[in-house]
Amino acid sequence: MHFSRVVIASRYPVVLLGLNCLLEAERDFKVVARCNDIASCFKAIQSLAPDIAILDMSMPDISGQAMLEVANSGALGVRLVFLAASVEDRDLAMLAAAGACGVLLSEEEPETLLQTLRQVADGQKTLPPPSYEEAIPYAQTTIPEKYLAVLTDRERQIMRLVSEGLSNKEIGRRLKVADGTIKVHLHHIFRKLEISNRTVLATLAVSYSGPTGSPSVE
Asked: Does the keyword DNA-binding apply (predicted)?
């Protein structure tokens, strides 16, 4: 029987123990590491290549950049799921940009939590999209509109799809091009806008959205 290998990261021992007991009681999950900070979680993902990593958003050292490093840690198959007591739309924008597959609320019933994890294990994304109105305040990076004007129509289209939380492969499927082509486009976008990651790109996309909540595309 196939089972999903899971890494759990939280600063709270009771959370680690609770999630460990819940998952180990199920035949389709196996906890391979319990970590109390992002650094140890990063190492566990690199060395163990789990299917799923559950990260508690209350950890003091968690950030958009840390999540991007986890997502790009070399374990390409790892699916990131975040645990939170509550989550705002601006958090969803950050999580989507970091490649998160879902968010677990600590108040959820165990059955609901397990159902979400099984959907993630099946390759589904359960992360709800941020709303346009709430996501705008999160964008702290300011870039003049003349910089955005240097983007091609295709690059603006990819920028919009990144803001929706799509991976390179998903964007490639949507646009019917190879995901390597999307990676090249993103490299050009980052260079033109003088930014370095998808988190900043997603927040910029929200900042310069049109009335419908998506970056203007001809």
From this structure: yes
**Coil, strand or helix at 87:** coil
User: 156-182: b or e for each residue (b if 16 or more CB lie within 10 Å)?
Assistant: bbbbbbbbbbbbbeebbeebeeeeeeb
Give the number of other Cβ atoms within 10 Å of residue 22's Cβ: 15
CATH number for the domain whose boundaries are 145-207: 1.10.10.10
Structurally, at CATH architecture level, domain 4-122 sits in: 3-Layer(aba) Sandwich (3.40)
CA distance 114 to 108: 10
pTM value? 0.59
Give the pLDDT score at 84. Answer: 84
Under-70 pLDDT residues of the chain: 1, 63-76, 88-90, 92, 128-148, 207-218
